[in-house]
Amino acid sequence: MKRSVLTRYRVMAYVTAVMLLILCACMVAKYGFDTGADLTFVVSQTHGVLFMIYLVFAFDLGSKAKWPFGKLLWVLVSGTIPLAAFFVERTIRAEVEPLVSDSPVAVKA
């Protein structure tokens, strides 16, 4: 597996997690203080698009690492739980990093 697969996943895990925290703050401002409705809309739409990209990259990593379905589902769902993606990303990185190689493996004829 290439390092770029893990790197794409890690970047999107952090971006998605940060956007989810920003979205939570916007929701508190919108419903708790009745302000920032327009900002909440923009942040929610942005988070939605970024979350879809995260799903694609996480699924790609999971299929290449040959994860069981339950583990893949947990990684995919972790992008919807505030702060979970930070912890799941760290665990996944530690697990997948030994499988990553920078150079392509030579195919024996």
Automatic annotation (TrEMBL):
Transmembrane segments: 12-33, 39-57, 69-88
Transport among keywords: no
Subcellular location: Cell membrane
UniProt keyword Membrane, yes or no: yes
PROSITE patterns xrefs: PROKAR_LIPOPROTEIN
Domain DUF3817: 6-93
Keyword set, alphabetical order: Cell membrane, Membrane, Transmembrane, Transmembrane helix
Domain of life: Bacteria
InterPro entries: DUF3817_TM
Membrane topology: Multi-pass membrane protein
Protein name per Swiss-Prot or TrEMBL: DUF3817 domain-containing protein
Species, as recorded: Streptomyces amritsarensis
